[in-house]
Amino acid sequence: MSEVLPAEGLLGASWLLIALPLAGAAVLLLGGRRTDRWGHLLGTATVVAAFVLALLCTFQLAGLEERSADVDLFTFISTGDLDVRAGLLFDPLSAIFALLITGVGSLIHVYSIGYMAHDPARRRFFAYLNLFVAAMLLLVLGNSFVALYVGWEGVGLASYLLIAFWYTRPAAATAAKKAFIMNRVGDVGLALAIFLMFAQLGTTSYAGVFGGVGTLAGGTITAIGLLLLLGACGKSGQFPLQAWLPDAMEGPTPVSALIHAATMVTAGVYLIARSAPIYDLTETARTVVMAIGALTLLIGAIAGCAYDDIKKVLAYSTVSQIGYMFLAVGLGPAGYVAGLAHLLAHGFFKAGLFLGAGSVMHAMNDSVDMRRFGGLWKKLPVTFVTFGLGYLALIGFPFLSGYFTKDAIIEATFDRDDWLGWTTGGIAVLAAGLTAFYMTRLMLMTFFGRARWEEGVHPHESPSVMTAPMVVLAVGSVFSGALLVSIFPLSDWLEPVFGEPEEAAHVIAPATIGIALTVIMLLGVLAAWLFVGRREVPVTAPVRVSPVTRAARNALYADTINESLFMRPGQWLTRALVWVDNRGVDGAVNGLAATLGGSSSRLGRAQTGFVRTYALGMLGGAVLVAGALLAVTAG
Amino acid sequence: MIEAPDLSLAALAPLLFVFGAACIGVLVEAFWPRESRHPVQVTVALVGTLGALVTTLLLTVDFEREITAAGALAVDGPALFLQATIAGLGALSLLLFAERALDPARSAFVVSAAVPAGSPRDRELLTVQRVQTEVYPLATFAIGGMMLFVAANDLLIMFVALEVLSLPLYLISGLARRRRLLSQEAAVKYFLLGAFASAFFLYGLALVYGATGSVRLGDIRSASLAGGTDVLLVLGLALLVVGLLFKASVAPFHTWTPDVYQGAPTPVTAFMAACTKVAAFGAILRLLYVAFGTAEWTWRPLVYAVAIVSMVVGAVLGLTQTDLKRMLAYSSIAHAGFLLTGVIGLGAAGDGSGLAATMFYLLTYGLTTLGAFAVLTLVRDGDGEATHLSQWAGLASRSPLVAAVMTLFLLALAGIPLTAGFTGKFAVFRAAIEEGAWPLALVALLASAVAAFFYLRVIVLMYFSPPAGAERGQGPTVGVPGMPTTIVLAITATATLALGIVPGSVLDLAERAAIFVG
Amino acid sequence: MTDFPWLLLMIAVPAVGAAVVAALPKGRDLLAKQVALGVSLVVLLLAVLTAIAFDTGGDRFQLTSSVTWIEDFGVSFALGIDGIALVMLLLIGVLVPVVIGASWNDELPEQRSMKAYFAWLLLLEAMMVGVFAATDVFLFYVFFEAMLVPMYFIIGSFGGPRRQYAAVKFFLYSLVGGLIMLAAVIGLYVVSNSQLGEGTFAFDALRQLDIDPGVQKLLFLGFFIAFAIKAPLVPFHTWLPDSGSEAPIGGAVLLVGVLDKVGTFGFLRYCLPLFPDASRFFAPFVLVLAVVGILYAALLAMGQSDMKRLVSYTSISHFGFIALGIFAFTTEAATGAVLYMVNHGIATGLLFLVVGMLIARGGSRQIGDYGGVAAKAPLLAGAFLVAGLASLALPGTNSFVSEFLVLIGSFPEEPVFTIIATVGIILAALYILLMYQRTMHGPARGVLLQEDPAEPAPGTGGATAVLTAPRRSLRVLDLSRRELAVVTPLVALIIALGVYPQPLLDVIEPAVSATMDDLGGIDQ
Amino acid sequence: MTLTYYLVLAAILFTIGAVGVLVRRNAIVVFMCVELMLNSVNLTLVTFARATGTIDGQIMAFFVMVVAAAEVVVGLAIIMSIYRTRRSASVDDANLLKY
C-alpha cells in the first residue's frame, strides 16, 4: 500500500462526491410532494455534478506525483483501543470506480427521467437512486474497512428499497427481502473479517491493515481473505449466494442497470482488488476466489441459455461476467488489472443492454417474455443498434471492448500454467461460447424473426431522453476495451495500487487465444441460429424438455437448495422453539404457580374444621417438638 | 414470718392503670344506667389503655431496669417497648370496638349473648339500638393480661397472664352481632384449643420447676448453666414453647387461627391479630433469651424449623383463600414465621440485632394488620361485612380512597419498600443473616414472594376488575366510617408510611430498648 | 453549578408532578395531559443541564450528595452519577415526553381515567431517575422495587385484554428477583459490617471490600438473578413478551426502553465492580446465556404473529448483545454495551410507538391483519422502516455503532461467542423485514382496508378477537401532526447518533474503564 | 424413689386427658379432659414441691386451681351458648369454618 498524503485542493472536497447525491436523496425524501415537480431533475443534477467533480478530482490526482490522497473528516468511533476515523481515500482504484459509478449513474438517471415519467412515485424513485449512488461512492471512497462496511450495507439498503420499489407486488417485496438477507449473510463474513483485523492488528484502516498484514500468521491471513470473499460473494451474486441477483429484476429496469453495471455487484470485485495486499499473501484464498469465479461464470452462462425473460437472461449473464472478474482478481497481481478492465467495459455494455431491454419493455407494455417479442429491429431502430453493439461487445466480438478484456483474463488464467489455470481457463473459454449462444438467442428472439406480439401492443421507439444515454453507452462499449487495454492502459494508471505489471511468460500466444475465442464465439452464435433462428419460436415454452434444460431453467436449483437447506428447516426450528418457549420455559413457570396453587388447596383439606383434628395436630406437633429437642440434646 | 415483697409502684403503673380501668369497667357495667353506659365504658377503657401507654413512655425516660414484685415482674426495655406497643394497639382496637356508624344496628357486638342465635328474640334484637358494653372491660382485661405477659419474669406469672389475656378473648370472639353461629363456633374452637394449649404450657412449667426447683427465669438460666440440661428441663422447655407458639399462631400450632379470625367479630380479629401476636412473641423472646439464652443450641434448630414450616404453610395456604379475613389469618401465620426469623437473630452472646428487629417488626405488623382489618369493616353488604374476595372486585372505581388505603396496607404486608413492612422485614432478615442464617432468610424471602401473590390478587380485584354486582346494581357498599374508625385508619396508614420512609427514630428506640434484665 | 442538587430535582419534580396530576379534579383530562407533558419537558431540561454540569474528564461520580437516611442500617440517601448513569438519565428525559405525547389520545379500557395514567407515568419517571442516580445500594434497591408499583398499575389498569395476567406476572417475576437480591444486599452489608467495623451501603465503600470468593459467588448470584430477570436474559425472559404485548404502548416503551436497562446497568454498576472474582468465574455461563438468548429470541421473534410480542422478543435478543458486551470484559465492548442501552431505548422505543400507532388504527395486534399499509400511509411506513432498520443495526443508524462496538470489542476476548452472536444480525434482518413486508408491502388488505365487513380481508381471523380500538377510516390512516411530532425527534436521534456517536462515547468511556479497573484490569 | 410413681401417675393422667380431648365428642367431656390435664399438673407440682422441699409447688397448685375455676366459668358459658343455639354439645357439629 503506497504512502498516503493529506489531500488538499479539490481532492479535499471529494467528500462532496458522497454528500451531493445524499443531499439529493434527503431533499427528495423529506421534501415530500412539494418536490414532485422538479425532484427528478434535482436527483439527476446531483449525480451529474458528482461525476464532474469526480473527473476533476481524477485529473488532479493524475497530476500528483504520489497518486493517492487521504481525506480525513472526523472521528467516527473512538473508544478504548479502537479508533475509527471517518475519512476518504482517493487513489487511482477508487477514482476509476467513482468515475464508473457517477458516469454510468448519471446516464441511468437521465434515462430514468423518461422511463419513470408516468410513475406517480418518480420522486421517491430518484431519491432511492441518489441514495444508492451515495452509498456506493462511500463504499469505494472510504479509507477504512469500517467505512467500506457502512457503504456496503448502505448499498444493501438502497437495493432493497429499489427492488421493492413496486412493493404492492408481492414478488417485488419478496425479491427485495431475499436480496437484503443474502447480502446480510455476506456482510457477516465482512464483519468478522474486520473483527479479526482489529483483534490482530488493532486497526481497521486500509493503511494500518495493509501495513501490518505482513506480520500475521498465514492461517490468519487466509481466514481474513476467505471472510472477505464471503462478503464479496454476497454483494456480487457469486456462488453460493447468487440466487438473489436474478430475482432483483423485480425492480424497475434502470435499477437493474444500476445494480448490474455500475454499482452493487462490482463492489465484490472492488473489495478483493482493494484487499490485494491481503490476497497477495494467501495463495489458498486466491485459489478459492478463482474456483468460485469459474464455477459461477459457468452456472450463470448455463442458466442464461434457458430463460425466456429478457431481463433474467441479462441477469444471469451478469452473474457469469462477474464470475470472469472474480476469476481475474483471483489470479492476483497478474489479473487485477484485467479484471478491473473487464469490470469497466462490462459497466458500459451491460448498462447499455439493460437500458435497451428497458426500452424494449417500454415498447412492449412492460412485457419481458421474449417469446412475445420478435421482429422489433425495424420498430426500434435506435434501441436495436445500441443493443446490438452492446451484444457484440459482450460476446467478445473482435476489437470491441469485451473482446480485449475477456481475452486478457483468459490469457492471464492460462499463464498460471498449472491444473487450476488450465481448468478455470478451459471453463472460461467454454463459457465464452455459451455467452455467445444465449446472447444470440436473445437477439434473435427479440429483434428478428416473426413478430409474436400480443394484440394491442404497438411498439414504438423510446423518447430521446432514453435513447441518448443508450447511444453514449453503446459508444463506450465499442471503444472502452481498446481504450483501456492498449491506447490508455489501465495498468499504468493503477500502477500505484497494484505495483508494476510484470510481463508474464505467455503459455499460449495471445494471438492464438484471440483466434480461439473468436472461433468459439462464432460456434456459439451458429448454435443459437440453429436452435432459435431458423425455426419458428413457439409463444409458450415447450414443456417436454431435456433434464439439462429443466435444470438450467431452474438456475441449477439454487433456490430449491436454499429453501430446503435453510428456509424450511429454519421455519421448523422457529415453530419448534415457539412451542418450547410457551410450553417449556413459560410452562415451567406457570407450572410452578399451578403446583403451588394445587398444593395449597390440597394442604387446605387438612383444615377440616373439626376441633379434635386440630387438637390432634397440636398434640402431634408437641410430640415432634419435644422429640426434636430431646434429639438435639442427646446428639 | 413472711415479709412483704418489694413493689415499685412506678414500674407497675402501666399495669395498674389498665387493670384499674378494667375493674372500674366492671363496676360501671353493674351500676351505671344502661342508656348512657356505652360512652362511659369507652372512655374508661380508653383512659386505661392510653394512660398505660403514657405511663410506659414516661417510664422509658431515664429508667433503670429492675425486677420488682418479688422478682415476679421484669421492667426492662423490651417489656416497656412491648407494653407500649400493646397499649397503643389495644387503644386503637378499642376504637374499632366503639365504632357505631357502620352497622345499621350501631355495633358489631351482639346485644345479649345468652339469646340463642336465630331465635325470634334474637332476630328482633338484631335491629334494636341497644348495644352491649361488657366487651370493653373484657378487652381491657385482655390488654392488661398481655402487658403482664410480656413483663412476666416468672413462669407462674406468665401462666396467669396467659389465662388473663386468653379468657376474655375466648368470650368476645363469640359475641358477633351477625353470623352468630360462626362467631360462637369460633369461640368454642378457640376456647377448647386454647385451654388444651395452656395445659401443655402448665405441664411444661411443672417439669421445669421440677428440674430447676424454681420458676424464676433467672434461676432457670443459672440452673441450666450449672446443671447442664437434663431431660426434664428440655421436655419442660418443649411444652412451654408449644404453649407459646400456639398463642403466636405458629405452624403447626396454627390450626385455630383461620377459623377464629374468620368467625370472630372483625374488630376482635383485629385486636387478636395485632395485640396477641405482640404479647405472645414478647413472652417467647423473654422465655428463650432470658431463661434459655444459654441453651440456645437446643432451641435454635427447633425455631429454625418451625419458622420455615410456618412461613411455607402461611404463604401456600393463603394462595387459595377466598375470604379476606381468612386470607389475613394465613398471612398472620406466615408473618409469625418471619418473626421467628428475627428470633433466630439472637447473637450467641445474647447480643445481635435480633431482639430489636423482632420488636420493631411486631410494631409494624401490628399497625399494618390492624389497619387492614379496619378497612375490612368498611366494606359491607346486606348482612354485615362483605369479606368474600369477589365482592371486592372493582372497589377502586367505587371508592378510590378506601382502595388506596387497603393497597397501602397490602403492599406493606407484602414488604414493598417505602412501607413499614419492608423496614421490618429488612430488620429481621438482616438479624438472621448476621447470624449466618442466610438460608432461612432466603426461604423467608421466597415465602414472602409467594405470599405477595395473594396480596396482589386483592389489588388486582380492586383495581383491574369490573365492579362486582355492577350489572345487578347491587353488590357491597362502602360505609362511611365514624370518628373512631377514621382515627384508626388515619393513624395506622400514617404510621405504615412513616415507618417505611423515616423509620430512624423508632428503630433507635427498639435498639436502645433491646436489653433484657435478669 | 455542580453543587446544585440537579439529581434530587430530577427525582422530586416528576414525583411532585405526579401528585399534582393525580390531585386534579375528575374530568380535567386535557389539563392533566398538559401538566404531565410540561413536567416531563422540565425533567428533560434538567437532564440536559445535568449533562452540561457533568465534567467528562472529572471524577467518576459527580453531582454527588448524601444525607443520612436510616442510621441504624447505615443507609444514606446518596445520589451521584457517572457517565453511564448520565446517558441513561438523558434517555429517560427524552423518552418520557415522547411517550406522553404518544399516549395523548389513547383509548383506555373501560372507565379508566387518563390522569391516573399520566400520574403513574410521572411517578415511574421519578423512580427510574432514582434507580440510576442512587449511589447507595440500599437506596438503589428501594427504587428498584418501588419502581414495580407504578409499572404494575400501568400494565394492569391500562393494558390489553390479558392485562391482569401480565401485570401480576411482571410484578411477581421482578419481586422474586428483587427479594433474592435483597438477601444479597443484606449479605453485602453484613460483610461490610465485619470488615469496616460498621455496616454501610455506600457503593464507594463497598467497592473497597475484598470479599472471600465463596461469599462473592453467592452475593453475585443474588444480584445477577435479579438483574437477569429484569434485563431479561433467557431463560428468565417469559414475562417480557406478556408485559410488552399487554402494556399500553407508552408503558411498553418505558418498560423495554428504560426499566429493563436497570438489569444491564446493574450488571455493569454492581456485579462487576463489587464481585470481580465471581464475575470472572461466572462470565462463561453468562456469555452462554447471552449468546443463546440472541439466537433463541431472534428465532422466536420470527415465529410471532403478534407485533408487540415480536418487538418484545427482539428486545430480548438485543439484551443478549448487551450482556455479551458487558461480560466480555473489554472497554470497547462494555462501552458499546452502554451505548447499546441508550440506542436500544431509542430504536425499540420508536418501533413500539409506530407499531402502537398502527394498532391504534387497525385495532389488531396480529401481523396477518395488515398489508400494503405503505401505499396508504407512507409516513407511517417510513417511520416503521427507520425504526426497523435501526433495530437491525443498519450502518448509519445509532444501533449499528453500539452493536459493532460490542462485537468488535468482544471478539479479541471471546471469539467463539462473538462469531455465534454475529450470526444474529442475519436473523435480525429476517424478523424485521418479514414483519415490514407483511404489514407494509404487498397489495393493500387487512382490517384497515375492508370498507364493508361483508367481504372480510384474508387473515383477519385474530382481528376480531383482539379488537380494542375502533377502526379508523382510511382518510386518517397516515400519521397525524401530533404523531409526527412524537416520531420525529426519535428518528433524528437515530440518524444523528448513527453518524456522530462520539460525544456519548466520550461520556461513557471513562466510567466504563473505571469499572474495568475495579474488575482488576482484565482489559489490557 | 417413691416420688417417681407420683410423677408417672401424673404423666399418665395428663396423657389420658390429652387423649380424651382427641376422642370425646361432647364439648363438656372434652373440657373435663382438659381439666384432668390441669389436675395432673397439680399433682406433678405438689410432687416436685415435696421433692425439692419447697412449698412453691403447692402454692402454684392453688394458683392453677383458681385459674382452672375461671376457665370453667368462661368455658361453660361459651359451650352453653352454642348448645342453646344448636341443641347439641358435640364439638364435631360445629364445623362451618374450615379450609
Automatic annotation (TrEMBL), chain A:
<feature type="transmembrane region" description="Helical">
    <location>
        <begin position="93"/>
        <end position="113"/>
    </location>
</feature>
<dbReference type="Pfam" id="PF00662">
    <property type="entry name" value="Proton_antipo_N"/>
</dbReference>
<feature type="transmembrane region" description="Helical">
    <location>
        <begin position="508"/>
        <end position="532"/>
    </location>
</feature>
<feature type="transmembrane region" description="Helical">
    <location>
        <begin position="380"/>
        <end position="399"/>
    </location>
</feature>
<dbReference type="Pfam" id="PF00361">
    <property type="entry name" value="Proton_antipo_M"/>
</dbReference>
<dbReference type="InterPro" id="IPR001750">
    <property type="entry name" value="ND/Mrp_TM"/>
</dbReference>
<dbReference type="GO" id="GO:0012505">
    <property type="term" value="C:endomembrane system"/>
</dbReference>
<dbReference type="InterPro" id="IPR003945">
    <property type="entry name" value="NU5C-like"/>
</dbReference>
<feature type="domain" description="NADH:quinone oxidoreductase/Mrp antiporter transmembrane">
    <location>
        <begin position="143"/>
        <end position="428"/>
    </location>
</feature>
<dbReference type="InterPro" id="IPR018393">
    <property type="entry name" value="NADHpl_OxRdtase_5_subgr"/>
</dbReference>
<keyword id="KW-0812">Transmembrane</keyword>
<feature type="transmembrane region" description="Helical">
    <location>
        <begin position="465"/>
        <end position="488"/>
    </location>
</feature>
From TrEMBL, chain B:
<feature type="transmembrane region" description="Helical">
    <location>
        <begin position="355"/>
        <end position="379"/>
    </location>
</feature>
<keyword id="KW-0472">Membrane</keyword>
<dbReference type="InterPro" id="IPR001750">
    <property type="entry name" value="ND/Mrp_TM"/>
</dbReference>
<comment type="similarity">
    <text>Belongs to the complex I subunit 2 family.</text>
</comment>
<feature type="transmembrane region" description="Helical">
    <location>
        <begin position="12"/>
        <end position="32"/>
    </location>
</feature>
<comment type="function">
    <text>NDH-1 shuttles electrons from NADH, via FMN and iron-sulfur (Fe-S) centers, to quinones in the respiratory chain. The immediate electron acceptor for the enzyme in this species is believed to be a menaquinone. Couples the redox reaction to proton translocation (for every two electrons transferred, four hydrogen ions are translocated across the cytoplasmic membrane), and thus conserves the redox energy in a proton gradient.</text>
</comment>
<feature type="transmembrane region" description="Helical">
    <location>
        <begin position="400"/>
        <end position="420"/>
    </location>
</feature>
<feature type="transmembrane region" description="Helical">
    <location>
        <begin position="79"/>
        <end position="98"/>
    </location>
</feature>
<feature type="transmembrane region" description="Helical">
    <location>
        <begin position="135"/>
        <end position="151"/>
    </location>
</feature>
<keyword id="KW-0812">Transmembrane</keyword>
<keyword id="KW-0813">Transport</keyword>
<keyword id="KW-1003">Cell membrane</keyword>
Automatic annotation (TrEMBL), chain C:
<dbReference type="InterPro" id="IPR001750">
    <property type="entry name" value="ND/Mrp_TM"/>
</dbReference>
<dbReference type="GO" id="GO:0015990">
    <property type="term" value="P:electron transport coupled proton transport"/>
</dbReference>
<dbReference type="Pfam" id="PF00361">
    <property type="entry name" value="Proton_antipo_M"/>
</dbReference>
<feature type="transmembrane region" description="Helical">
    <location>
        <begin position="116"/>
        <end position="134"/>
    </location>
</feature>
<dbReference type="GO" id="GO:0012505">
    <property type="term" value="C:endomembrane system"/>
</dbReference>
<comment type="similarity">
    <text>Belongs to the complex I subunit 4 family.</text>
</comment>
<feature type="transmembrane region" description="Helical">
    <location>
        <begin position="310"/>
        <end position="331"/>
    </location>
</feature>
<dbReference type="GO" id="GO:0042773">
    <property type="term" value="P:ATP synthesis coupled electron transport"/>
</dbReference>
<feature type="transmembrane region" description="Helical">
    <location>
        <begin position="218"/>
        <end position="240"/>
    </location>
</feature>
<feature type="transmembrane region" description="Helical">
    <location>
        <begin position="36"/>
        <end position="54"/>
    </location>
</feature>
<feature type="transmembrane region" description="Helical">
    <location>
        <begin position="170"/>
        <end position="191"/>
    </location>
</feature>
<feature type="transmembrane region" description="Helical">
    <location>
        <begin position="252"/>
        <end position="275"/>
    </location>
</feature>
From TrEMBL, chain D:
<keyword id="KW-1133">Transmembrane helix</keyword>
<dbReference type="GO" id="GO:0030964">
    <property type="term" value="C:NADH dehydrogenase complex"/>
</dbReference>
<keyword id="KW-0874">Quinone</keyword>
<protein>
    <recommendedName>
        <fullName>NADH-quinone oxidoreductase subunit K</fullName>
        <ecNumber>7.1.1.-</ecNumber>
    </recommendedName>
</protein>
<keyword id="KW-0812">Transmembrane</keyword>
<comment type="similarity">
    <text>Belongs to the complex I subunit 4L family.</text>
</comment>
<dbReference type="InterPro" id="IPR039428">
    <property type="entry name" value="NUOK/Mnh_C1-like"/>
</dbReference>
<feature type="transmembrane region" description="Helical">
    <location>
        <begin position="28"/>
        <end position="49"/>
    </location>
</feature>
<keyword id="KW-0472">Membrane</keyword>
<keyword id="KW-1003">Cell membrane</keyword>
<keyword id="KW-1278">Translocase</keyword>
<dbReference type="GO" id="GO:0005886">
    <property type="term" value="C:plasma membrane"/>
</dbReference>
